């Protein structure tokens, strides 16, 4: 097979991988907020607008295949040619940067801006993928412009495969860096070689172009902005301020973990378009990238020694972050992994305490009773802990209770061993709603928790099956035993697998978040957009209300009190 032909597809995949590294790096750094440039939130509409970022790489590859078929000298290119690389570099530094500057200024004329370039500038808070999101005609113009340094050496007989690949990688690098929204270039580079400020731009330099619009037009060499007096006067000040930076201390930390093997892609630092949709919204190309998911799992298991930041949110004056324990669902089920996982959780709690975090909510299996007693292990070990640990059971119980129809007289408890399931059962019995249990051991345990006046509403039966079911795990076989038209209400953080089409399945306890919450552009696991689990929301409410107590172990917030507080702060039922 011809070398040039064989290199085209790998080169395209390499470009996509390179861009994805920038996306992940940028999102991790902006979540930390230490060197963030534009401190505004991203929204779902921007993620949706930029989901086609890889189209330009595919289009460029198709053009390369056409060039391969149409230009004989393309098929004869060697792996490397030094003369061709030098010509390519000189063409880019000379005419290409100059032409780009004036073409970019022309795009800001109201006629072209309103028809084309405004699509790109709709993203004031830029991400690496913002760099290549343009209308088709503009994308085509850029491709033609940047084809010049590649085609001229080829026509002169000095083209090479590696030269073209490196030139594309260079363009991707400067584009991604300019739109990453965090400052990364150290000051000593410009101090040791002062003329470099005219030859290489910084992320803060191009960020000003997206916020001020009428300045900093150059591609990668600011020299033309200096020559034609379009350099933003605040460029140097913004660069120095963002470079120093300070890592933000959040008020609330939600400590979660990865779930399935492919959940790494669903994190905010994963694939942007995938993370913006519920995780049960399967994407067709997932099967193609499962080896990377497997590799990520192995690396996380071997080298994942601490929680990492993936998200930063803001509601009113409360700043929130999401930290992820680098472990997966299946690892929480391994007895030998319990102690290492608890060490990771303990380490995250200690770090949050040292940094002055007010509330840390334990998400998913990080609050598993068999693992750490719903967090009680840590409050007992550290009685002077300043950060408040919240398992969210009070709000989760409130959401389950509000999900049960008001006219319900009987409820079936199926597989309910969790703190929320027990609290829901207790509350229902106190409200004179009969709860039917078909497991004798579970019935005896629940009866001991009830006040004597409420025990009459707890009933053990193997043949009475009401239409409203609650429980942590209701498997397919159990669902088939439910009557037609039954309603399944999960009490755990994990959704039920839907088996029956003639029954109603409710979401696991969750609420809609207020419109005032900023920087929300990912979905929490399997939940819809702008919906969060009750366990996560409970930590936010805890901080907003300034409650100074833990909610973990057997302790639970007053159900009505925490529900009223959540509603007061703008959270609404699904």
TrEMBL record:
Listed under GO biological process in this entry are:
lipid biosynthetic process; response to stress
Q: Which residues cross the membrane?
A: 57-77, 84-103, 140-169, 283-304
Coiled-coil regions listed: none
Which Pfam families does UniProt cross-reference here?
CER1-like_C, FA_hydroxylase
**Record InterPro entries:** CER1-like_C, Fatty_acid_hydroxylase, Sterol_Desaturase_Related
A single Gene Ontology MF term assigned here is:
aldehyde oxygenase (deformylating) activity
Query: Which Gene Ontology CC terms are recorded?
Result: endoplasmic reticulum membrane
Assembly and partners are described as: Homodimer.
Q: Family, per the entry? A: Belongs to the sterol desaturase family.
Protein name per its UniProtKB record: aldehyde oxygenase (deformylating)
Give the species this sequence originates from.
Hordeum vulgare subsp. vulgare (Domesticated barley)
């Amino acid at each position: 097979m011809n070398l040039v032909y064989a290199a085209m597809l790998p080169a395209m995949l390499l470009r996509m991988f390179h861009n994805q590294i920038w996306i992940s790096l940028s999102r991790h750094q902006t979540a930390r907020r230490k060197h963030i440039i534009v401190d505004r939130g991203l929204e779902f509409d921007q993620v949706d607008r930029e989901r086609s970022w890889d189209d330009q790489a595919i289009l460029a590859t198709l053009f390369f295949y056409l060039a391969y078929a149409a230009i004989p000298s393309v098929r004869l290119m060697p792996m490397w040619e030094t003369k061709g690389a030098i010509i390519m570099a000189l063409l880019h530094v000379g005419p290409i940067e100059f032409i780009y500057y004036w073409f970019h200024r022309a795009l800001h004329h109201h006629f072209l801006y309103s028809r084309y370039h405004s699509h790109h500038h709709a993203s004031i808070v830029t991400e690496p993928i913002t760099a290549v999101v343009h209308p088709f005609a503009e994308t085509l113009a850029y491709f033609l412009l940047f084809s010049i340094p590649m085609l001229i050496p080829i026509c002169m007989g000095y083209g090479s495969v590696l030269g073209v690949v490196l030139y594309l990688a260079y363009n991707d690098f400067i584009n991604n860096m300019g739109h990453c929204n965090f400052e990364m270039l150290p000051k000593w580079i410009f101090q040791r070689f002062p003329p470099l400020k005219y030859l290489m731009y910084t992320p803060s330099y191009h960020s000003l172009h997206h916020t001020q619009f009428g300045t900093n037009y150059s591609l990668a060499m600011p020299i033309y902005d200096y020559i034609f007096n379009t350099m933003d006067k605040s460029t140097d000040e913004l660069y120095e301020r963002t470079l120093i930076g300070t890592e933000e201390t959040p008020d609330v930390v939600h400590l979660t973990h990865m779930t399935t093997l492919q959940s790494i892609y669903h994190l905010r630092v994963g694939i942007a378009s995938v993370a913006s949709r519920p995780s049960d919204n399967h994407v067709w190309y997932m099967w193609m990238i499962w080896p990377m998911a497997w590799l990520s799992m192995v690396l996380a298991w071997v080298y994942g020694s601490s929680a990492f930041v993936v998200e930063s949110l803001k509601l009113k004056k409360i700043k929130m972050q999401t930290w992820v324990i680098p472990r997966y669902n299946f690892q929480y089920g391994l007895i030998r992994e319990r102690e290492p996982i608890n060490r990771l959780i303990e380490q995250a709690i200690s770090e949050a305490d040292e940094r002055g975090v007010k509330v840390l909510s334990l998400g998913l299996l990080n609050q598993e009773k068999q693992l750490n007693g719903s967090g009680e292990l840590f409050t007992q070990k550290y009685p002077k802990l300043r950060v408040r640990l919240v398992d969210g059971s009070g709000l989760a119980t409130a959401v389950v209770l509000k999900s049960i129809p008001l006219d319900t007289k009987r409820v079936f408890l199926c597989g309910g061993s969790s703190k929320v399931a027990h609290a829901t059962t207790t509350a229902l019995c106190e409200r004179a709603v009969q709860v039917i249990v078909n497991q004798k051991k579970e019935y005896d345990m629940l009866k001991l928790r009830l006040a004597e006046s409420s025990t009459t509403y707890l009933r053990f039966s193997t043949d009475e099956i009401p239409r409203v079911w609650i429980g942590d795990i209701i498997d397919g076989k159990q669902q088939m035993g439910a009557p037609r038209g039954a309603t399944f209400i999960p009490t755990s953080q994990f959704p039920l697998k839907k088996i029956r089409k003639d029954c109603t399945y409710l979401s696991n306890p969750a609420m809609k978040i207020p419109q005032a919450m900023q920087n929300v552009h990912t979905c929490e696991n399997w939940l819809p957009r702008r919906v969060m689990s009750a366990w996560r929301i409970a930590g936010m409410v805890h901080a907003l209300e300034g409650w100074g107590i833990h909610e973990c172990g057997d302790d639970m917030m007053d159900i009505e009190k925490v529900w009223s507080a959540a509603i007061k702060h703008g959270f609404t039922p699904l």
